Amino acid sequence: MSGVIVSMRRTLLSCTSLARNGLVGGALAALLPAAPAKAADLVDTLSLVMDFNRQELAVLATALALLGFSVVAAILLMRTRVRTAKNEARLRARIGELQLQADRFGALLFAEPQILISWPAGDDRAQISGDIALVLPRDSSPQRVLAFGTWLPPEPALQMDHAVDALRERGDGFQLTLTTAHGHMLEAIGRAIGGQAIVRIRELSGLRRDLAETHLRYKALSDETEMLRGFAAAAPWPIWAKGENGALTYANPAYVRATEATSAIDAQERKLELLDSADRTAMERGLKDAANFTSRLPIVVGGERRIYDVRAVNVGSGSVGVAIDASEADALSSALVRMAEAHRRTLDQLSSGVAVFDGQRRLAFYNDSYRRLWDLDRNFLDAHPDDSSVLDQLRAARKLPEQPDFRAWKAKLHEAYRAVETAKDTWFLPDGRALSVVTTPNPEGGVTYLFDDVTESLDLARRFDGLIRVQRETLDSLAEGVAVFGSNGKAQLFNPAFVRMWKLSSDAMRDEPHIQTVEGWCHQLFDDPQVWRQIREAITSIENRVDVPLKLERKDGSVLDGMIRPLPDGATMLTFQDITDTENVERALRERNEALEAADQMKVDFVHHVSYELRSPLTTIIGFAHFLSDPSTGPLTPKQAEYLDYVTKSTNALLALTNNILDLATIDAGAMKLELGQVDVSKAIELAAEGIQDRLATDRIRLKVEIAPDVGSFVGDEKRVVQVLYNLLANAVGFSPQDSTVGISARRTERSVVFTVTDSGPGIPADMKDKVFNWFESRSQGSRHRGAGLGLSLVRSFVELHGGKVRVDSIVGRGTVVICDFPTDQAAHRDAAE
């Protein structure tokens, strides 16, 4: 009893101490782990009591009040200790049994070399047990065991990683057979047991290894067989297998469809064959003689005859075969042959030399142009020589470019057989020809040579380049500004004159500016929007491309004469010429011409007016002179008669001069009209000669008249023709010396009547021939001739009014010949009169 009291006293002290530290509940829970519900109530009560432990007096009072309860607690504690001791003894015995059982299982588990790797649920840390040296050296760390890539090849290591991840994440078990990097065969089994992921790895050896290898081979063979069966079933070609006796043992669906069977069994039972008897016999013979058979045969499938490539081979005691549809290939092959033949015929028609060498560098094809280009023997080429032989023969004939190292040159040329891209070169032959050589590697091996004679092309190119340079130099030296704009409106060509004329920058023009940009630069000199719009439209338009003349008066006072000219290539040339000086001169000349025309008109008007005013008094004087000379008016003294004769001659001469001036003025005014009719040539000459009889007698000049018998008559104004002949005779008499001869002749040609008047006067100098027909142009040239210089002017005017021509042939000192042509065509008269 005293022991119980001592125990209670110790318990009380312990409770007091625990209460001070706020740990009463924890202590009681430790002391009474198996107490009944009353013990729990006691703990709650003590916890409430301990809440007043803040003051020492409260704690002591509470301890005294619980003294009785502590006795009960001590008794219960003793019972609990006794029960705990018994449970502990049983637990130790059980643990011993479990330890023995675990040792037996461990001994059994590790009776053979293996590794166990376990991952508790929710824990990434792996526990490894077993013989690590199974896969790695004994001193290796467990971390290397979990790094499968350190001791397994890449593919098995990746397979192991995926299997372990699936086991840990979803509990998927696995069984793998692995081969290490050192050649060891391992078995890896993964299972989810008791909430843990466990992987067992052990080495396969002996019978198990053999079984595993056999299993693997069987599985691989089974997979391969299944794959082949699936391939045969999916293949679109008929595939079959036959036994030793030649009976059908397998047929795929394509074979079944080709033989129109319902199934493979139906084809076997009915012994349906794909080939006809002759082809089967040939196939059996080939399999017997060479263990294989290959041929392209026609087979009727679905009522349609098609071409198949049939291949069969002996396998074991039987044979297998396949028929591949080659109808399209056969058709393509035939088409390829025809196309190749067509290409050969086409290449034979080319002017370019073509030679094709195969992969063995032997000549496989050549066209006739190639043979003619190199002048090679056809028999030599038909023998399919190699590339080197052809080059050597050409070199011996000095038909190849001269080379200092021919072997190196040929080796470089033969690099085309190993090249992948086309190469181009130009050969300059000793005979002066230039050849363009293109070497093209063939996809199937070999090289194709293409030879073109470019001698003429190069010559034309040189000439063209020369012409371009000449054109450039010509444009640069032109005073005209020239610019060429393309169809896109950009400047393509220009010369320095254009740049200077518009005060532009040569560098800016080389950048090919657009016409709108050039227009903006030129606005400072010329800003007429209508003209610039016309230039833009002419340059950029597609239709209505015609020459457009321009005349620009710029702000600086200069005047440009321009032209927009479309070129054949779609471009447009714009030219400008500075005509400021020409324009100023033209303007001055125009003003002067207008002034001269006004003065000439004034002269004509004056002459016409004066001549008209002179005719009235002259007519009166002439009338009174005739009246005085009439005997009825009374006798005149000799002196009076002489004076009256002088008056009459002078007034007649003045009247003739006045009439001539009036005629010329009328002709110049365009008012002269001819009175056309039949002109008798003989009569006209006679009338003209009568007018100069007194002058002929005075100067002792003989008139010689020659009229052709067939001259006849022509249409003209007889009065004006007589006036022409009179003036010509009077002029000839005036310039002829005394005791000389003046001649006049007339003859008819096919289209005219020709009058010729000759004299023996001093002749006309060369510088005077163009002036003898001008008004008032009269020079005596040392003769007795005196006149106003209107006679020949009237001659030319009247002849030209008739549509004829007048010409003068004269040699100084030998006389003058004047020839007048009067046309016999009435249309010429009408045109002249109009």
Automatic annotation (TrEMBL):
**SMART domains recorded for this chain?**
HATPase_c, HisKA, PAS
Q: Which residues cross the membrane?
A: 58-78
Where do the Histidine kinase domain residues begin and end? Answer: 609-826
Q: Is Signal one of the keywords?
A: no
Q: Which reaction does it catalyse?
A: ATP + protein L-histidine = ADP + protein N-phospho-L-histidine
> For this protein, what is the EC number?
2.7.13.3
What keywords tag this UniProt record? Answer: Kinase, Membrane, Phosphoprotein, Transferase, Transmembrane, Transmembrane helix
Entries under PANTHER family matching the protein: OSMOSENSING HISTIDINE PROTEIN KINASE SLN1, TWO-COMPONENT HISTIDINE PROTEIN KINASE
User: In its UniProt entry, what is this protein called?
Assistant: histidine kinase
